[in-house]
Amino acid sequence: MTIETTRRSLLAGSGALALGFSITGGSQAQQPAAPALPGDLKQHPKVSSWLRIEGDGRVRLLIGKVELGQGILTAVAQLCADELDIDIKRLDITSGDTQLVPDEGVTAGSFSMPNCGSAVRQVSAEARQILVSLAAAKLGADAASLTVADGTVKAPNGASVTYWALVAGRELEVESTGKAPIRPREARRYAGKHVPRLDIPAKVMGDQIFIQDLRPQGMVHGRVLRPPAYGAKLVKLEAAEVEKMPGVVKIVRNGDFVGVIAEQEVQALNAHARLQSIAQWDVPKTGETQDTVYDWMLKQPEKLIVIKDQPNKTVPADAQTIEAAYKRPYHMHASIGPSTAIGLLDAQGVTHVDTHSQSVFETGQAIAEMLGVDKAKVHCRHVQGSGCYGHNGADDVAADAALLAQAVPGKPVRIQWSRNDEHKWEPYGSAMLIKTKARVDAKGDILDWTLDLWSTSHGTRPGGKAGNLLAARMLEKPFALPTPINGGPPNYAADRNAIALYEFPGQTVSTHFLTNFAARASSTRGLGAYANVFSIESFMDELAARAKADPVEYRLRYLKDERARAVLQKTADMLGWAKYEKAPGRGRGIGFARYKGLATYCAVAIEVEVNRASGVVRVLRAVSAADAGEVVAPDGVKNQIEGGIVQSLSWTLKEAVRFDASGVKSSDWVSYPILTFSEVPPITVELIDKPGLPFLGAGEASQGPTGAALANAIADAVGARLRDVPFTPVRVKAALA
Amino acid sequence: MPVLKVNGRTHDVQAAEDTPLLYVLRNDLAVNSPKYGCGLAQCGACTVLVDGQPVRSCVTAASAVAGRDITTLEGLSAGGKPSKLQQAFIDEQAMQCGYCVSGIIMRAQALLDQNPKPTDREVRLALDGNLCRCGAQNRMVRAVLRAAQEG
Ligand code: FES
Ligand code: FES
């Protein structure tokens, strides 16, 4: 085992340090098989990939996952500081820089804590073990006799040495063994406790922390022309007059891709507005609308995937059959800050892209393909942006900036999409149609359960392919949109959470996956889970009502997983379910799911008041219990569950992207309203902590349960069952009529 | 060529008369906090105070506020120390991504200046025109009420 300097060493002139030593006494060959490494440590076992002990008493943590406002940087810092036994203030974190950090894929799917958090915890334990061994050699003491406090290792005789003196900027070129012990709970200072989020002070003080605030030397401003509708072709654009507008540096045209670069942002905006007004487009005459899309889905060529095939063959022929159909429209990510990127082509031919993409590596690769260069020639660096909740415009604007940067080598080109661009061109969460069917006995108990879902893709992230980038599809030599595939088990995509956790005597679930698109779609918080859970949990209430059973008790008949039962019961108790007294026009509902069938358990209960005359639904309060395994950052998990509830209430009450052949009609906050401060109900979240159990991602757990709880509460309040999202006053009144 | 008074300091600005204040603040004066969110007076991300009144800087011409007192988020803190309201946002962890936060704090500051002890309902109504997509509204309301309490 050696520690060596490498290219990244900051110690100028220091020679390679090669220290041979043994940690446990025996040679590797005599040891039992090494335990599997946790999370992303499997792909990146070298300690130096994740950690650097700097010479100046600081420690640098390098991670591939990125901060999206979910607090991941703070959570991994907590884990790292505990295992290394250093003060958390000593940590500097580099995340999402394709030249520096381990490739941990996409920051999505609630994978950050399971994959990155668990890797950081283990690799930090590995580093501590190495450092203590080094200290033992240095101090001439037995490793077991040493104690560590904030990076200083002490021997029983009082002699001590610090991590930084031991390593001093050299790399820990050591493979993780998986054997370094994780410190006991009592020894932890940070994990599981409240640690203030590291990024918040800068955001409250107006420091430069967002990508939107970067102003590199010599920066110019770009804007890109987007067509009026999907599939439109540019037929005429005489740009000469725009070239002469004040501040315009260049008009870039490549096929139907048109961009303008100007000295100042306002000049770029003016030139862009002029281009927009003189460009003539050929717009396709046919297309679906938000209303026709469900019939369209049923007529498309489909890939039928039966993901659960356990019918109950003993159901009597005269068993009663109950059916329902649920609809979810296209929903936007609708980030408050439109997507932004800065591209720069340097003298070595490397294109640097500052981006708030969730997938810096794969987006960089897709951009390289678009530019026709080797992937090493594109360097992406993550900088925080506005919350994205999935695949929004971040990657497309990164491609826009990279393309425009090619036209002005040496100059950083900043692009921020307009509100109109973001609303109309981001890839939406796919519309879905879900049909459920149950056969029940005379008491209303479920004998057999069937669910069929129709959906377009939830996964058109760049994935290393240029065809997934808007700009690349507009070029003179256009890249084609790759045929989408549906992510399979165990995480699933369109059919995420389509298999109910309930143990019915029979259950059949089929995915009708469509590779065509009616509107641009990709990963949006929870993928298919929102619509699937909404449908399953609404249908459970419909069945419970027929069985004249209490919705909680009815669920518990089929829910065998103890953690699931605990979460459901606790949520019901938090609402005061058992003693609930119904006032006129008021009602309460509950919804439950274990996200992806393998992540956080979450139930949500809601009380509503429905105005029969106006059809307006007022959410009076929401409560939620969640079991996310071992909790590292309690307030971070609560914030995610709570934010998910608010966003899901917004989706379910208000949101649907409107579109027709002439384009998307939801182009701003008036045509696509979201929930506002006065509409957000009081929310209480409680966590069931499971120390020692794996971290279960929590960022997407509450969306589905919330949608269902809302529908169930409305049904309880006024007897109207709403199956089509969103529950606008018009729809509520129609359901009451 | 307006003279702008931002956070107590005077600047000669070279921007065209009709340039929205937002772009002058962000680009000419390198003030980070007011954010572009919509440019349509619909989201509040760009909110600053002009003579103590909340103003949407994306639709306000810089020339229209020449010589008046413009306050941005940066102007609330003193000597690197967060104001009571800013500190309350830190203490309540009142955000996820934080993109909306600058505009929300400025709107809340305007409320507290005029109504130092608002109710929960009054805070919500004051902030109703400021959008937050992360769903951190309740935390923000708590932060404002905490600042009022401590104020
Ligand atoms: S950016 Fe000014 S209100 Fe949205
Ligand atoms: S905290 Fe992200 S938009 Fe408000």
Labels describing this entry:
heterodimer; A: 737 residues; alpha+beta; Aldehyde Oxidoreductase, domain 4; 5-stranded mixed beta sheet; 21% strand; disordered N terminus; B: 151 residues; Ubiquitin-like (UB roll); DNA polymerase, domain 1; 2 domains; 5 helices; 34% helix; binds FE2/S2 (inorganic) cluster
Short description:
The complex is a heterodimer of chains A (737) and B (151). Chain A is α+β, with helices and mostly antiparallel strands and 737 residues long.
Tell me what you see in this structure:
The complex is a heterodimer of chains A (737) and B (151). Chain A has 737 residues and is α+β, with helices and mostly antiparallel strands. Chain A has three domains: 2-183, Aldehyde Oxidoreductase, domain 4, CATH 3.30.365.10; 211-283 and 335-424, Aldehyde oxidase/xanthine dehydrogenase, molybdopterin binding domain (Aldehyde Oxidoreductase, domain 4, 2-Layer Sandwich); 428-458 and 493-736, 2-Layer Sandwich (Aldehyde Oxidoreductase, domain 4), CATH 3.30.365. Chain A has a seven-stranded mixed β-sheet, sandwiched between helices. Chain A has a five-stranded mixed β-sheet with strand order 12-20-19-18-13. A four-stranded mixed β-sheet of chain A has the order 21-22-23-26. In chain A, strand 2, helix 1 and strand 3 form a beta-alpha-beta unit. In chain A, helix 1 (72-84) packs parallel to helix 2 and helix 8 (360-371) runs parallel beside helix 9 (394-405). The longest helix of chain A is centred in the first third of the chain and has 28 residues, at 112-139. The radius of gyration of chain A is 28 Å and the shape is globular. The N and C termini of chain A lie far apart (76 Å). The relative contact order of chain A is 0.11. Chain B folds into two domains: 3-75, Ubiquitin-like (UB roll); 84-150, DNA polymerase, domain 1. The radius of gyration of chain B is 15 Å and the shape is globular. In chain B, strand 1 (3-6) and strand 2 form a beta hairpin. The longest helix of chain B is centred in the C-terminal third of the chain and has 14 residues, at 101-114. The model of chain B has no long low-confidence stretch (mean pLDDT 96). The chains are: A alpha+beta (737), B alpha+beta (151). Chains A and B meet through helix 4 and helix 14 of A and helix 1, helix 2, helix 3, helix 4 and helix 5 of B. The complex binds FE2/S2 (inorganic) cluster (2 copies). One FE2/S2 (inorganic) cluster binds next to loops of chain B.
